[in-house]
Amino acid sequence: MQAGRGSLPLLLPGCAVFLGFFFLPMAGLFLESFRLYVPGSIGSSANAPLTFANYVELLTPAFASFFFETLRVSLLASLAGLLFAFPLAYWMTRSLSARWRAIAVGFFVTLMFLSVLVRTYALELTFGAAGPLRPLLLSLGISPNGRGYIESLVGAGLLHYIVPMATLTLLGTIQNVDPRLVDAAQALGAPAWKAHLTITLPLCMRGLLAAFLFAFTFSISAFVIPMILGKGRVLFISNLIYNRFSEIADYPSGAAISIVLFAVALTIVYVMSHQVLKRWK
Amino acid sequence: MNGRLLDNGFRLLGLVMIGVILCFLLTPIIVTTVMAFDARAYLGPLPPPALSLRWFAQFFSDDYFLRGLSTSVQLAVLSVTISLCVGVTTAFAVERASFAGKEMLISLFLSPLLVPPVVTGFALLLFLSHLGLINGFARLLCGHIIITVPYTIRATLAGLAGIDRSLTEAALILGATERRAFWDVTLPLARTSIVSGAIFAFAVSMDDVAVSIMLTDANTFTLPVALISSMRANFDLSIAAASVMLMLVTLTLIVILEKFVGLNRVIGQGVFRS
Predict the structure, then answer these.
(1) pLDDT in tens, B81-108
(2) Does A255 touch chain B (CB under 8 A)?
(3) What are the start-end ranges of the H helices in chain B?
(4) Which residues from chain B sit within 8 angstroms of residue A111, using beta carbons?
(5) How many separate domains does chain A show?
(6) Domains in chain B and their CATH numbers?
(7) Prior bond to B47 cis, omega within 30?
(8) Which chain A residues are Cβ-neighbours of B1 within 8 angstroms?
(9) Which of helix, strand or coil describes residue A136?
(10) What is the C-alpha separation between A204 and A174, in angstroms, rounded?
């Protein structure tokens, strides 16, 4: 207790920074989301009446579709990320020598650290409408400016981060699975696919769920990837918040969308870490 | 017999998937690197007929990018320094404290990691304009401090948790003051973790778009914001040149991490965004 009291002054700078730059602004954002907005003005006026209108507006199909689009693309990208990362991580732990595994880990850490700008620009340059794949796409009858293709491109942008991240997350998980369990099942006559399905996969479930949680929360709050690769035709919730601010200065609406996005992210983290992960302990 | 056939099928499928995904991860990076050295004045098909450094020269003759670069570097150095000081003191205080709700306090200090960056930026923008703070650099500094501080706190906490408490106690018994024990025993032992926290914070600050784009003004903007807006305006290859240089920065940071901390420890400490 003595030591605790002595160190309390040390908490002051941290508390000041978090209060001033984070908790008070978040509280202000919450308040702003209930302010009445008069079209044409910049933000709400100082004593604008309180209203639920900014939230009710989000229930209209036009707004709801942005939420569904964000969730759908994020969900597909996260699942695809796990689908590719699992064999990759398995192969790295079981088939690579220690030296090559270290090199592979370095490679994936570098990929994960890669600037989001580099990632998006590189994907647009390679797979975008003006890229070297254009003739191939056209010959396959895919329009590089079609909505479906742009949506896949946004998903690919998310995937480019999710795969290295999920692979590194799963590495530890797979390393903890005793390979003799699968050997035993096979010795007793089970084919390898069945042994993996009934032994490896369930034992890795916690790791898979953790990787999914990282991937999904990363995806739904993505900003640069949909902004550049979506070309204004595919908008994520983050982009919508920015547009509300930069194009029409409707701060209360932007604040309401922010609060909903924050609540969605928080709910996912809570459900995954407290409910789902607990069941797999 | 059937099982064996299926096994081989699955193994093949797994290898094909690994091949496909590695191609997908690497191709864009290779294409960008090659195109950055393209000698043509326009965006032509691969491969470039001749190589040159013209796009690098163009990047460095563009005042818009250079101003962004200068702001970004100043901002990163200043915000990492501040969040390192704040992060280390906070982590140290939390670690030593023995009050109830310590876990709760730690999760409060890490909570900015859960908030989508656009939301953090927007909240800060509203708050600072209510306070009347409209200086672009000051606003950006506030934003960059709050997005980097959780990383320095988390890294320092991880470092402090790995220190045997009896070492500090030994120093105290041998007559060192608390202050002396901190500077001579605790801090050196936590050094590698603190360094990795600083590298993370630096990478986050240099790479941020979502928070910065909310807080920039007409004259003060970061390099990522400048690159984003020119990416939307015209798809020029000087951005490919900038990308190659940013990749080199990333690679340098990874090499530093590997040399000083070791990548295996970094992964354990959470490279992850949330």
Answers:
(1) 999 999 999 998 888 777 777 888 888 8
(2) yes
(3) 2-36, 54-61, 63-96, 102-110, 117-131, 136-161, 165-173, 178-181, 187-207, 212-215, 223-233, 238-260, 263-268
(4) 25
(5) 1
(6) 55-268 (1.10.3720.10)
(7) yes
(8) none
(9) helix
(10) 6
Higher pLDDT, A78 or A273: A78
Cβ contact, residue pair B243, A83, below 8 Å: no
Distance from CA of A143 to the nearest CA of B (A): 18
| A118 to B243: CB separation less than 8 angstroms, yes or no | yes
Q: What is the pLDDT of residue B165?
A: 79
Q: Which of B88, B167, B17, B258 is nearest to A167 (CA)?
A: B17
Note whether residue A30 is domain-resident. no
Is residue A31 in some structural domain? no
Name the residue of chain A whose CA is nearest to B259's CA: A106
Is A129's Cβ below 8 Å from some Cβ in B?
no
CATH number of residue A163's parent domain:
1.10.3720.10
How close B31 comes to chain A (CA, Å)? Answer: 6
Domain extent for A203: 62-279
Q: Inspect the interface and report whether the beta carbons of A117 and B228 lie closer than 8 Å.
A: yes
Is A164 in Cβ contact with B25 (below 8 Å)? yes
pLDDT tier for residue B2 given thresholds of 50, 70 and 90: low
The answer to whether residue A202 scores a pLDDT higher than 60 is: yes
In this prediction, the answer to ipTM > 0.95 reads no
